[in-house]
Amino acid sequence: MIKVLRYAHDKYPWFLAISMGFIAITFVVGMGWWGFGEQSGNVVAKVGDLSISRDEFRRAHENMYRFYKDKVPGEFKDETIKQFVIEQVVESRLWLIAAKDMGLSVSDADLLDSITQIPDFQKNGTFDPLIYQRLLAANHMTPAIFEAAQVKELLGNKARMMVRDAVALTPAEIDEGQALMTRQQDPDPAKAQAAKDRVFQDILFQKQQRALMAFQESLKSQIPIKIHREML
Predict the structure, then answer these.
(1) For a 10 Å CB count at each end of the chain, is N or C smaller?
(2) Using one digit for the tens of pLDDT, what is the confidence trace for 75-102?
(3) pTM for this one?
């Protein structure tokens, strides 16, 4: 079931930013970028010095539940949604901390480009400010809150990109790809080259994914994470 939720998240990534925006707002309203004090209400989780209050989690959970009910066929247990939401929140915090340690930042141009490229905010292939505002309003979100969440998403993605870009194929892996191509050689030169490119792209992609997972697990082992599951 979690795999289904992750697939929907990959298909509608902007919505996750909206849902998590209710949590992300605590970063920018009087608390600073990289940490904040205790919020009103009980804390359901802490990732390093970053706290997540019960109210913030509930708002994200409610938005996420409505989204999957509307967008994804089938029934989802409430506990499954809760587990997915808390995992996503924790992982996003880990990558934010990584981005800080890497000295990364997001410019206004980066933010503008990312928002205008989201298909749901476009009309006839062009960003439409009215659609943008209406869609956010329909999800009980202001542009300021969404944009703050989007900055966090971009920072996390930049940190992931740094890890991915550090990965390269070894001579042994290149030989493995060459051997695979020898067994699947297409007589058409153009198709053979395209197939070769796909093979090496797939090998590199799989290695990059393993590197990302390993880096994330390393973050989990280094950064204190406390989840009060009884409060979710």
Answers:
(1) N
(2) 777 888 888 889 888 998 999 999 999 9
(3) 0.74
